[in-house]
Amino acid sequence: MDIFLLILGFLFVLLGIIGSFLPVLPGPITGWVGLLLLHLTKVIEMNWTFLGITIAIAIFVWGIDYVIPAWGTKKFGGSKYGVWGTIIGLIIGIIFLGPLGIIIGPFAGAFIGEMIYDSKDGGRALKAAFGAFVGFMLSTGLKLITSLVFVYLYWSKFWEHKSLFF
Question: What element of type H or E holds 93?
Answer without folding.
Answer: helix 80-97
